[in-house]
Queue: 3 jobs
Job 1
Amino acid sequence: GAVVSQHPSRVICKSGTSVKIECRSLDFQATTMFWYRQFPKQSLMLMATSNEGSKATYEQGVEKDKFLINHASLTLSTLTVTSAHPEDSSFYICSAIDRVETQYFGPGTRLLVL
Amino acid sequence: DAKTTQPPSMDCAEGRAANLPCNHSTISGNEYVYWYRQIHSQGPQYIIHGLKNNETNEMASLIITEDRKSSTLILPHATLRDTAVYYCIVRVAYGSARQLTFGSGTQLTVLP
């Protein structure tokens, strides 16, 4: 199957700082990528839909000014958590859709805000 | 997207077939059944999907009932590495509603 990578795999930061997470489709082009968040013992929750060359669409309750999404190319989407706080600590997972509309997920980024 | 119902947990002996059921009684005619699994602390892994015919690939088989109201994912020879949470998701494959909505899934534990 198709491969999606994320970087970094884990990050620890101080409260108030910003963290950028990269999501790349390695062997296919993706006009649409998704960002999910998963808290311990819970299922994945969709945060936003990232479309190449246009603004992201955020789910209800997700602050667009806090979670900045940029999808500047067909293989790269970035999520920036601005002014991170301990409650933003979570497992962030991206996914990308291939040309036959199957969705493939990255390995996830574990964020810990101290 | 149609809602799915899965048992919260199942056990399976190593080397035996694991049969994971899923109910999706409100599925629409243009909705596909997708299966993903998530091994602890990893991103979900695509397994298989189908519309109405049974499907098979190198990982698993998907059996969809004729009325499409339920399906079964079959791992023919389960190994310890198949221990994971398995998600059954119903989704329109083409069109605007393209995101996946995850339920709570089935925790499959493969026992030695």
Job 2
Amino acid sequence: TQLLEQSPQFLSIQEGENLTVYCNSSSVFSSLQWYRQEPGEGPVLLVTVVTGGEVKKLKRLTFQFGDARKDSSLHITAAQPGDTGLYLCAGGPSYNTDKLIFGTGTRLQVFP
Amino acid sequence: GAGVSQSPSNKVTEKGKDVELRCDPISGHTALYWYRQSLGQGLEFLIYFQGNSAPDKSGLPSDRFSAERTGGSVSTLTIQRTQQEDSAVYLCASSLAIYEGPGELFFGEGSRLTVL
């Protein structure tokens, strides 16, 4: 069974601080996605990374896929209250399946 | 509608009763997924469909859980003889699935199930 462990599980910070969320597995993934979920809603895709070592930037968010395709990180610069939510990584186990496995989640709270 | 639609949005049932949860995906999306989420935690994979077929149903917790998809569109998740541990939010998602591996998933707002 392929598992994706996220750390930290909870994060409370002040507006303007930087933070990093980690997504780790012992298994290799063909691709890695990051989603954000707000209360009462379904998760919404932030980014997809597909190449080992790939780095993608989305405004203040930087996503990295590990060289070995087993881990990923999300770095937020100068966090804002609007960044508050549940962040979820999700991995595709292989190219031959559309199955997507989600991580354990990181709940971020940014205080003004 | 334009998005993934799930019904009911809330369901309260008594232990031992059967429940059906419905998912109406985005038109044209060939892949459909069911996940379970407890207390705002991560998503637990249940099953996914490619068209009307379910290539992977390995996440279904027990034989009390079943799902079907008809006409490559609407899907129903059925839980028989519900137990209190089945209480959770059941999320449905759909995807175009035109790439190798999973594409972007579009989620519904979920069906919150409470088993008393």
Job 3
Amino acid sequence: KNEVEQSPQNLTAQEGEFITINCSYSVGISALHWLQQHPGGGIVSLFMLSSGKKKHGRLIATINIQEKHSSLHITASHPRDSAVYICAVSKETSGSRLTFGEGTQLTVNP
Amino acid sequence: GAGVSQSPSNKVTEKGKDVELRCDPISGHTALYWYRQSLGQGLEFLIYFQGNSAPDKSGLPSDRFSAERTGGSVSTLTIQRTQQEDSAVYLCASSPGGSYNSPLHFGNGTRLTVT
């Protein structure tokens, strides 16, 4: 079993829909990262959080440390949001290296 | 520079040859990471630098892989005697501090193909 699990693996939505991607982890962490990887391969850091909730534009990330669970929400989704979304954790025992989930492929249709 | 720069963007090499991949991090970022992503696979950690030292190189898959960082800036990842299973996208990232307290900034990667 992977230490970081994401669901769903694939998600197709219609433009305008509210989207949720989930991430569960089984280890103690110092921080959790949400990354976005576009079809060209470039990776962008969306959020880094260790507690509570963060919001940036239409994106919201939450984390529940007790339940070892994080969610990434996209409001009013748009075709340009189509990408792979990756959850990664910085484990308490591993210093700075990140441990990655398998990613969620999101496709938003117009 | 504006972001993390990697070169070359693409590299095709014959099995058995050595390759060098370069990463130029954001100025002032003390932490530098190498990751790789094989086709259809997730991201895999290779090595982490803090300044010029590498406190964690546990992800290097074999002794054919080595990396160095000089002047707290540019890093090179060297793969000796390349094998077909080394084909992947090699990604570099930098951050002002460790990933436990700083977001990472990724380069666009080097796509390595070993024929």
